[in-house]
Specification:
Elements: H1 2-22, E1 28-31, H2 33-39, H3 41-70, H4 74-120, E2 125-128, E3 137-138, H5 140-147
Parallel strand pairs: 1-2, 1-3
Helix pairs in contact: 2-5, 3-4, 4-5
């Protein structure tokens, strides 16, 4: 398995080297995506908001548990518990969907910012810094300044 992966990487590297040498105008940039995301105010705000929603859900759950415990009969407890479990599942799903939708929007925004920054600096290609062993101009700081 390791040999197969190494062979594929070697072939890709040779192909890329051939491509780069045949086109003198290829200009390649690298970006540390994790560093950009870590500095993003949008991501930080989204994380904070998500934590607040989770805390609200936990508080709601404690209140619901208290309501169930106050019930006099086992039948009423089970009925209320079933209702609260359904409500909890719905709230949890809504929070997850909203977070996913907003996270995709932030991801799209960051990707567009990277593309715009790269084009403005004359780059034809941007590769994630995590997969590049050598080469490429690092534009991470430039992207971070725009993303904020």
């Amino acid at each position: 398995m390791k040999r197969a992966i190494l062979s594929i990487c070697l072939i890709m590297g040779l192909s890329f080297g051939t491509l780069a040498s045949t086109s003198a105008e290829q200009k390649i940039a690298v970006v540390d995506i994790q560093a950009v995301v870590a500095k993003s105010a949008q991501v930080q705000a989204l994380k904070k908001e998500q934590q607040a929603k989770i805390q609200d859900l936990e508080n709601w759950l404690k209140t619901a548990q208290g309501d169930v415990e106050k019930q006099k009969t086992q039948e009423n407890k089970e009925k209320l518990l079933k209702k609260y479990n359904a409500d909890f599942a719905k709230k949890k799903e809504d929070i997850a969907k909203d977070y996913q939708t907003r996270l995709q929007a932030v991801d799209k925004s960051i990707t567009e910012t990277i593309a715009t920054t790269a084009r403005a600096k004359g780059y034809n290609m941007v590769i994630s810094k995590g997969i590049v062993l050598y080469g490429g101009d690092d534009i991470t700081l430039d992207v971070q300044k725009v993303v904020k």
